[in-house]
Amino acid sequence: MLSFEHCTEYPGALKTLELPIPGKLQGKVRDIWDLDGTRLIVSTDRQSAFDIVLGTVPRKGEVNTQLAAWWFERSADIIPNHIIDLPDPQVMRVRRARVWPVEMIIRGFITGVTSTALWYNYAQGQRRIYGLDFPDGLQKNQRLPEAVITPTTKAESGQHDEKLTREQILELGLVPEAIYRRMEAATRALFARGQQLAAERGLILVDTKYEFGDVDGELVLIDEIHTFDSSRFWKLDSYAERFAAGEEPDTFDKEFLRRWYVEQGYRGDGPPPPMPPELAERMSGLYISVYEQLTGETFVPAEPELSAPARIEKNLRAAGIIAGGG
Predict the structure, then answer these.
(1) Is residue 238 part of a domain?
(2) Is residue 326 part of a domain?
(3) Which terminus of the chain is more solvent-facing, meaning fewer CB atoms within 10 Å of its CB: N or C?
(4) In the predicted model, is pLDDT for residue 318 greater than 70?
């Protein structure tokens, strides 16, 4: 099971969930149960960065689940996805898939502070990254001439993702070539759609990751899409001015959390500093504000009179997923 050794808990946030269903699995931010031909994915309030769980953020799971569902609906014409329904605002029921073990990361800008980020590697003097050549003279947060795909391994919980090249993926047989070509095409089309819709709402989709799987011989988009766990968003109207001034963009994702940890001297190795409550509250506020800006809908917390575990179990019983519902 996932280690919570360094997880700083926020009161009332959902760190993990126990259900009367056997076979619980855990990712960095999700609790998962395999059902009969389907899978139940609970997006907890766990906040990860540097591939570890740092703490919890109030309402994060609700916001991410509903935002992923919103994006899945608006990209289904590009590629089918695994979602069946949302029995609770924090829970997705999905089709079970054979997961292709590669995270398809696509980047429209050179930025980032983690070891797999383009800017981090470029600033160390590298000019060939992910098998791609980059010229001298690029500046942090600069828009790239065209988006680049920079795949990584899909690491187990507690492990770090590792950089991959297209050639390595094919040589290692991680994904058959014909399927990988389709994954690349879907990645570019999904990113273009995401950037278009974000720009219409005053945001820049800077970079993101997609995961793919096989369901009955069909390539499908799985996991999530354009959420705050998988994507970086900047404010559109201030980007050019701030970039020209050498200032960091107005960001609406967990990058400012990463920056805070880097300022404390932490980049993912060893025990992290505790996450301050004000940082968790700021994260929550940002997630909610961008959800509202993207969707045009007001975020309404689900049944605040109930704890998240009580509400989720009640809704799962009502949906017949747990026996005893009515």
Answers:
(1) yes
(2) no
(3) C
(4) yes
